[in-house]
């Protein structure tokens, strides 16, 4: 009988696990937050992932539970594990992707390179951190941030006055980075690792805009150092499934860990068309404890350009034929989401052996969907 994978969360990451799961003969069930979500192509239950009864009932129908996001509460996850449900990644690992303060403390124990940081409970703690770090800092809410929400660059505690009172905040040095990178690693419960090439991620307005795979090497041993950091974190935290380690490459050529995601990640979409085994197939294999696929690139370069939503009245579908006609070598992926301004509604991948040409191809195809 086919294995059934249960994915909590009905967004595009769940959606993109469906095709490779089907190819592997794995059935998929999704617990979506509301009807009609991106991943509703698979058998879908609708309910609140914060409610133990809802998630428990969902888990009964599947062999392994995994996630499209990191928001399922620890109490729910731990109750499932105690009841014998197979959950990947498990709560012990996932807590470090849910809470940035817990992550910083654990990465410090593992000796991973990080920005200077502190837990700041009040304005005077933050002022002390500012005084020690040149008068500016990045302050983050430990939980619930995404796409730059929950991140502020400040030079005085008043700028985050509205955030105090709900537990300590994370203060970090304002890193002078040359660029942002991401290192992905897959790890299966039995321990096997598959390490992807480190990629460059280009952010605009706090949102990932483009990814270049692999990251053009500016310093010797970049790929090796990044791979070692990713593998050490995957093993040190006992991650199962896909791990993405977001990194800063500093102007003085150090790599520092920004944050972790324990699921497929926007920085890995290139691999659907650019790697022997893309991250969605790899995540499915890893959480089912199947042998991992080869993470090697198929072509020297792959570039991913995100499609962000335009006016609500417009549809991706109406623009698709022209984009496909003009760029037959580009791969367009759409998420079945209503386009709202700034919302990630799809992406384009292009691959080849000339980086400039690949960047051009991906941007040109994506531009058909821009305003
Ligand atoms: P989110 O969880 O919203 O993705 P991140 O912690 O990844 O938040 O921060 C969002 C962006 O803010 C990063 O991609 C980076 O551009 C910038 N940023 C975050 N932390 C720092 C830092 N310590 N120094 C400089 N820039 C930072």
TrEMBL record:
UniProt keywords, alphabetically: ATP-binding, Ligase, Nucleotide-binding, Purine biosynthesis
Main enzyme class: ligase
Enzymatic reactions: 5-amino-1-(5-phospho-beta-D-ribosyl)imidazole + hydrogencarbonate + ATP = 5-carboxyamino-1-(5-phospho-D-ribosyl)imidazole + ADP + phosphate + 2 H(+)
Pathway note: Purine metabolism; IMP biosynthesis via de novo pathway; 5-amino-1-(5-phospho-D-ribosyl)imidazole-4-carboxylate from 5-amino-1-(5-phospho-D-ribosyl)imidazole (N5-CAIR route): step 1/2
Highest taxon in the source lineage: Bacteria
Enzyme Commission designation: 6.3.4.18
Family: Belongs to the PurK/PurT family.
HAMAP family for the chain: PurK (MF_01928)
Protein name: N5-carboxyaminoimidazole ribonucleotide synthase
Species in which this protein is naturally found: Microbacterium lacticum
Gene this protein is translated from: purK
